Amino acid sequence: MPFKIQTSPKGATTAILLLAFLFCFGIASVSHADAAASPAVSCNLQSAAFNRIQAIQNDPTLGYAEELKAELAARRQLLTITINCALEDAQTLQSNLNNLQVDPGFLNLQTQLSENLDTSINFYNIQLSKVPTAGIAATQTIAKDVLAWRESNYAPLAATVSNFVLWIKNQPLFTAADNRLGEIKNLAQSVPFSDNTDLQTELQGAKSSLRAAEDANTLAKNSLAHPTYPDPSLGYIQQSLSSLSDTYQHFFNIASLVQTLLPH
Fold it and tell me: Exposed, middle or buried: residue 180 (CB in 10 Å: 0-12, 13-18, 19+)?
């Protein structure tokens, strides 16, 4: 049975808790550019957790004090789960970031991003520490604060970190493509390849597409080094990989031509 958000003042906190959880984790997967770089945290909260609060509110057998006590316990439990999930998500992302092997020129950015994640982790820990003694109104305030922080601070930061991780992991692909192009250029200068028009055309295509890939890769690098919101780096990364794919298609075509030109 799906959970229905109540509109009465009594159900306001439940709605806030639900929105906080859905925002933080229902769409968490789209905030990370690379699932491998930032694995999804297993925080699937069933609607029964929210229905429990609703059931307490609608239980005619409970007196006012009993209902308040049971409802508060359920709200604290739900809020604790939500914040722990947010905390785990931030810690996982930070671990992936800190485990990266980066060039010296990116150490400062890596450190800065990790420190920014520390700020979010500290925020979540502070909010978590408030839950055990929070009343009904306080749980509502905590949930609102967590949701606001997630939207205005953590989500943009998580996107930048994930894009940075993805960009760093992509760099060996560009090094390999550049090395391969160098080998092919040497081959294309020798007989019988130097006079073959089709091979030379493919070689020029490979040069052009690799140049486009490297240009987009540089734009991604610059946008990561000077973060803005919204972060354009993912678009540049995608462009660079698309052009890199075109480059390898040219490499494949060249390899096929070489096979036909070699003496049998």
Answer: middle
Amino acid sitting at position 53: I
CA angle 162, 33, 87 (to 5 degrees): 50
Alpha helices in 131-232 (DSSP H): 136-149, 155-188, 197-225
**Among all chains, which residue has been given the structure tokens 């609607």?**
47
Tell me the pLDDT band of 181, cut-offs 50, 70 and 90: very high
∠ at Cα 167 (165, 171), nearest 5°? 120
H helices within the chain, ranges in order? 12-21, 47-57, 64-98, 107-130, 136-149, 155-188, 197-225, 233-261
**What pTM value is reported for the model?**
0.75
Q: What are the boundaries of each domain within the chain?
A: 9-158, 167-261
* Cα–Cα dist 215/247, whole Å: 13
- The tens digit of pLDDT for each residue in 61-118 reads 777 777 778 788 888 888 898 899 899 999 999 999 999 999 888 899 999 999 999 9
Query: Helix, strand or coil for residue 222?
Result: helix
